[in-house]
Structure formats: C-alpha cells, structure tokens
Design brief:
single chain; 117 residues; mainly alpha; 51% helix
C-alpha cells in the first residue's frame, strides 16, 4: 500500500478549531462556572507562553517557540509571577547599616520633613 495516500496536507479551519474549543468549554463550564464565556484558541497559546516564561524559559526562546520575528512581540507574555518577583527581591543583598534612622522616636519630625505636618 502506498503510504503517501494516507498523508493529508489539509489543515483544520480556524472556525472548526474555535467550534471544538467552544464545545469543550461549554462542557467544562458545568463543573467550573467561573470559566470565561468567550474561550478562544489564542488563550491556550498565550497561557502556554506565559507559563514557559514564568517557569524560567528565556524570553528569547519563548519568542522562537511562538515563531515571532521580533522579541518585542513576545514581551506581552512576559508577566512575572509572584515567585519570580520574590526571587528577584531576595537575590539582591541589602546593605545593613549600623546607622539608626534620624526619625526614630521623632515621628512628628519625619512627618514634617515629608510635608505631612
């Protein structure tokens, strides 16, 4: 049997993909009523790209995976997670000084300096 006859180059239409996703979203909404009413294919692409970035995949690699010609296009997916923000904040050494703040015991003076009184 000629295997080339079994291979098809026809693509599924965008409308068909949208229809299938909408059907499954309707089914899932019965269990998860907070699911958005408008579910579309790009939500999956965007969620996957954001998750890749938040899991530590370099933005340049995410851009290549998405097939973007410009890194600027991919930056819309670069939403840092709370874990990333915490890691960034904790990775920087904070200098500890023996110097006491000038306003300790003088909150009124600090308020005056800040224009609050």
């Amino acid at each position: 049997m000629d295997m080339s006859l079994l291979v098809t180059t026809d693509k599924m239409s965008e409308g068909n993909v949208q229809r299938i996703i909408s059907q499954y979203a309707d089914i899932a909404r019965k269990t998860y009523p907070n699911m958005p009413t408008a579910v579309h294919p790009h939500m999956f692409r965007r969620t996957r790209a954001t998750n890749l970035y938040q899991d530590g995949v370099a933005l340049e690699l995410v851009s290549a995976i998405l097939g973007h010609a410009h890194l600027e296009t991919t930056k819309i997916y670069a939403k840092p997670s709370n874990k990333q923000i915490r890691h960034a904040m904790e990775s920087v050494q904070t200098p500890i000084s023996d110097e006491e703040p000038l306003w300790v015991g003088s909150e009124d003076e600090m308020a005056r300096l800040c224009g609050l009184r």
